[in-house]
Amino acid sequence: MANGSTTTGTASATETATETATATATESTATAAPRTEVRRPALSPSRAGDFKQCPLLYRFRAVDRLPETPTKAQVRGTLVHSVLERLFALPRGGRTPETARELLRPTWSELSEESPEWMEIFTDPVSAEEVAEWLTSAEKLLDSYFELEDPRTLSPEACELHVETELDSGVLLRGYIDRLDVAPTGEIRVVDYKTGAAPRLIGEAKAMFQMKFYAVVLWRLRGVVPRQLKLLYLSDGQALAYTPDEPELARFERTLEAIWQAILRAGRTGDFRPNPSKLCGWCSHQDLCPSFGGTPPDYPGWPEPDPGEESALDRAD
Question: Which of 112, 107, 76 lies closest to 89, judged by CA?
Answer without folding.
Answer: 107
